[in-house]
Design a protein that fits this description.
Elements lengths: L3 H21 L2 H7 L1 E2 L17 E2 L9 H11 L2 H7 L1 E4 L5 H7 L3 E4 L13 H16 L11 E4 L17 H7 L2 H17 L4 E2 L23 H16 L16 E5 L13 E2 L3 H8 L1 H8 L4 E4 L3 E2 L2 E2 L4 H11 L5 E3 L17 H6 L4 E2 L4 H14 L4 H17 L23 H14 L1 E5 L11 E5 L6 H5 L22 H11 L3 E4 L11 E7 L21 H11 L4 E6 L7 H6 L2 E4 L8 H7 L69 E4 L2 E2 L3 E7 L5 E2 L5 E2 L5 E6 L7 E7 L4 E7 L6 H5 L3 E10 L5 E6 L5 E5 L1 H6 L5 E7 H6 L9 E7 L2 E12 L10
Parallel strand pairs: 3-4, 3-13, 4-5, 5-6, 7-9, 8-10, 9-12, 15-16, 15-17, 17-18, 18-19
Antiparallel strand pairs: 1-2, 10-11, 14-19, 20-21, 20-33, 22-23, 22-27, 24-25, 25-26, 26-33, 27-32, 28-31, 28-33, 29-30, 29-32
Bound molecules: beta-D-glucopyranose (2 copies).
The site of one beta-D-glucopyranose has 10 residues, from loops.
Length: 855
């Protein structure tokens, strides 16, 4: 037996040998990414920094900066220093707070915006940026003027702003295989950001998603680290400009953030904020190359990931943040945390986390928790729990970035060119680049009998709910966090896919008709069906299998209907990831993976239609950035038992003449895990859940088919119709005694991260008879563990017979005693009184704006 220490040393030695071999075989890579040969370093942490690449930083002239840093650091009070390392959300902070606390930064989260209005016009953003800046520069109280930085998720263009140019999400950009284009996209995004006064973007996401069940897979360029590395380099240069040039980080450039360090895309089962159960070598080889490239391109900020590695949260990981990223790779910018992610570090809460700073985090993203966090952090510095040297290092890094970006001399955001040039938002020139990106991102998966390209002189029917649907073609992180709750009218400068087809066909002498449900009076020459995933982002996008819309065949039926009418069908599939669509592939003559193209739907018609003379206008260029699954259970290309249906890199062109054989439509049984975000949908309990009823203290009985009654008929459940046949339930409490309706599961689920993500228990309800007594909505967490909230007041206010939506934030249940790490029943409804209530679609959903508050 060898002991643990000897084993660790042995492992280190083996790894070093392997790496030396790997790196010497790879000297070309070093030139392009700035990697140099490893040398041995010793460390007390559980990483082996010596096996990680060293990065050569770009040459920056910091000679004037470093003395200023020393001077500033020696003059700032400890209160001012602590202020610098805290970032608050514009929804929870005012300019006055910034003046008083000297906060280093503000951000707007996906669901927050100036004045609380997601749809606020560009000029309101600029005015808010000026106000925060002026507050930060105010010296009337004797404090030092330190310009604030405003960070925003400009992840596919300046996507929080109405009228901005919206590029395809990263998955589509990965398909273009055009790194040079990334640079132009970065430059345009930076320019549009500067127009509204923000100087910092939380982009690029350089995740290398390994399991596309992850709801953020579309933020990943590819499953392939080499492609991600190339793109990371190029987009950082586009956003920040060339290091060493006078307009680096200023003018039409912004500060970029490489996120989320490290292995956000490598978590077990693709769980958002989950755990990467991989070796240190896999961590390095799969997930780190993008960071090496971003750092060598001069990226100034790295965002620590919500996720963990081998069970330890990265936000508190000294080995990865300090020993590897800062010491080994030499990163000299700063590390920002993710949205209250520090609260998930062992021993921490949202309002206190010395462990994260001590591990190497430099700035807390503390959206709503900033004030208490400020007080606690200050106390921890004063007590020595956070060493002053560590605080000084964090502040030095933040100020270094501010100085490099010239913020001290820049004046207020509206005075910095191109601040206030609103015409640049969605300008024709910018949109043309986005349209090119759309064209190049399209991947042709099937083209039987060479149905494509189409002649623009044809009679074209355009169907499907994605055809004229700008929210859907943009996906998540568009005006709102999940990309939900918005309509076509919120995209004044965008073009839908249908609108693009209509103008191509009109110019070519044909006709294009929009018919979402596919009905027509005159038989068309061809039908184009645009369909796919509905918008989602973090958490909500996580799925259990890759089957496209399980249990909902409406898109398939649409395709089949045209087939039956002998009309050739072209499928245009909108999605954030490859999904199992064998039935849809079988039912279509041609099939195009169009990803989430953004504002320029016209790019699709550019490729589908020929020129007037019948010659190809634009050929397909896109190649799959992820392998396409052969079965719904094939989550990634590595280690899968079968070969993918289409390999990473696959994509037909108009030169190809292959027909796709008929594919298997068999759906294998899904692994038994419970659906974490849906509990009751389409008239049945979701995967892993059952509907149960119980009277008094008696054990609850599960109802097969989700209809039946509790003992003594004190609670009866029957099927009713809401949007579709029997998709809802009517629950009738007789008033003869207490009774409970539950959605319960066998294995507990963990909803901690969902609570942190501000999700709410959400359902549709209809009052048929109002409550006569107290009604409690609860969450159960094993025997004897519950959190319950009274809801009768709200139910009493609802008009009878009308469907409405109910929302209750998850954290409210936590306040009432629910242990969200161990949820056995996410939905319990109890009363001893009389109540008749229709219930449908029980789930978790984002958006606290319209949810009630709880203490
Ligand atoms: C996301 C980050 C994002 C941040 C600010 C987090 O929940 O994980 O990618 O930058 O919120 O909106
Ligand atoms: C915010 C997002 C953030 C998320 C974190 C949302 O309410 O708008 O920006 O990423 O919460 O979980």
């Amino acid at each position: 037996m060898i002991d643990a220490r000897a084993r660790a040393e042995l492992r280190g030695a083996i790894v070093t040998t392997l790496l030396t071999v790997a790196l010497t075989g790879c000297s070309k890579k070093e030139e392009t990414t700035g990697e140099t040969q490893p040398s041995r370093i010793t460390t007390a942490s559980n990483v082996h920094p010596e096996i990680w690449p060293q990065v050569s930083l770009p040459a920056l002239d910091d000679t004037a900066i470093e003395p200023r840093l020393n001077e500033l650091l020696s003059s700032l009070s400890v209160e001012e220093k602590v202020g610098q390392i805290i970032q608050a959300d514009v929804g929870s902070v005012t300019a006055e707070d910034v003046r008083r606390y000297r906060l280093g930064s503000v951000l707007n989260g996906g669901n927050s915006a100036p004045g609380g209005d997601d749809l606020a016009p560009a000029r309101v953003w600029l005015a808010a940026a000026d106000a925060f800046y002026e507050a930060s520069m105010d010296t009337s109280d004797g404090k030092h003027a330190i310009p604030i930085m405003w960070g925003v998720d400009a992840v596919h263009g300046h996507n929080n702003i109405i009228g901005a140019t919206l590029f395809p999400h990263n998955v589509g950009l990965g398909a273009t295989r055009n790194a040079e284009l990334m640079r132009r996209i970065g430059a345009i995004t930076a320019t549009e950001l500067r127009v509204t006064g923000q100087e910092w973007t939380f982009a690029p996401t350089i995740a290398v998603a390994q399991d596309v069940r992850w709801g953020r897979a579309y933020e990943s360029y590819s499953e392939n680290p080499t492609l991600v590395r190339e793109y990371a380099h190029s987009i950082v240069l586009g956003l920040q400009g060339d290091p060493g040039k006078p307009d680096f980080l200023r003018g039409n450039h912004v500060i970029a953030t490489a996120k989320h360090f490290l292995a956000d895309g490598g978590t077990f089962e693709g769980r958002d904020q989950g755990d990467a159960r991989i070796t240190e070598e896999q961590l390095r080889d799969l997930h780190a190359p993008g960071y090496v490239a971003a750092i060598s391109a001069g990226v100034q900020v790295v965002m620590a990931s919500f996720s963990s590695w081998q069970g330890k949260k990265i936000t508190g990981h000294h080995g990865l943040l300090t020993d590897v990223l800062k010491n080994r790779m030499g990163f000299d910018g700063f590390v920002v945390g993710d949205w209250n992610a520090h609260g998930q570090v062992e021993g921490c809460s949202n309002v206190s986390c010395p462990a994260a700073i001590n591990a190497g985090l430099d700035m807390f993203m503390a959206p709503d928790s900033w004030k208490e966090l400020y007080d606690n952090t200050l106390a921890q510095v004063k007590s020595g729990e956070i060493p002053m040297a560590r605080l000084d290092d964090a502040v030095r890094r933040i100020l270094r970035v501010k100085l490099r970006a010239g913020l001290f001399e820049a004046g207020k955001p509206s005075s910095r060119a191109p601040g206030g040039k609103f015409d640049l938002l969605g300008s024709a020139e910018h949109r043309a680049v986005a349209r090119q990106a759309v064209r190049e991102s399209l991947v042709l998966l099937k083209n039987d009998n060479k149905v494509l390209p189409l002649k623009p002189s044809m009679k074209v029917l355009v169907a499907g709910d994605g055809a004229d649907n700008l929210p859907k073609q943009n996906g998540g992180w568009t005006l709102t966090w999940q990309g939900t709750g918005i309509e076509n009218k919120h995209f004044p400068k965008a073009e839908s896919i249908f609108a693009g087809i209509r103008s191509a066909v009109k110019a070519g002498g044909g006709t294009a008709t929009l018919s979402v449900d596919g009905k027509y009076t005159r038989k068309p020459d061809v039908a184009i069906v645009v369909f796919g995933e509905d918008p989602y982002a973090e958490f909500q996008g996580d799925i259990a299998t890759l089957e496209y819309k399980p249990g909902n065949e409406s898109d398939l039926e649409l395709l089949k209907k045209f087939r039956a009418d002998q009309i050739p069908v072209v499928a245009v599939f909108l999605s954030g990831r490859p999904l199992w669509v064998n039935p849809e592939l079988n039912a279509a003559d041609a099939f195009v993976a169009a990803w989430l193209p953004g504002s320029e739907g016209g790019g699709i018609a550019d490729v589908l239609f020929t020129k007037r003379d019948g010659s190809v206008n634009h050929d397909f260029k896109g190649k799959l950035p992820f392998a396409w699954p052969r079965t719904p259970l094939m989550f990634n290309s590595e280690g899968a038992p079968e070969t993918p249906l289409f390999d990473n890199g696959f994509g037909l062109t108009y030169q190809d003449t292959v027909d796709l054989p008929v594919l298997s439509e068999e759906v294998p049984a899904a692994p038994g895990q419970a659906s974490t975000h849906h509990y009751f949908a389409a008239g049945r309990p979701s995967n892993g859940w059952q509907l149960a009823v119980g009277a008094g203290d008696a054990a609850r009985t599960a109802l097969p088919g989700a209809v039946g009654s509790a003992q003594g008929d004190v609670l009866q459940i029957s099927a009713i119709d809401r949007a579709a046949q029997e998709d809802a339930r009517l629950a009738k409490w007789s008033g003869a005694g207490p009774a409970t309706l539950a959605l319960q599961g066998e294995a507990p689920i963990d909803l901690q991260r969902e609570a942190n993500g501000q999700l709410s228990v959400t359902f549709e309800y209809r009052i048929d008879a109002p409550p006569s007594a107290k009604v409690m909505l609860g969450i159960e967490c094993g025997p004897g563990c519950r959190g319950d909230l009274p809801i009768e007041a709200q139910l009493k206010q609802a008009p009878a017979g009308e469907w409405r939506q109910f929302k209750m934030p998850l954290h409210c249940f936590q306040n009432k005693g629910a242990d969200l790490r161990n949820v056995t029943a996410p939905f319990l409804l109890s009363t001893a009184g009389k109540l008749e209530l229709g219930i449908a679609n029980v789930r978790l959903e984002s958006g606290l704006n319209d949810a009630p508050r709880c203490e």
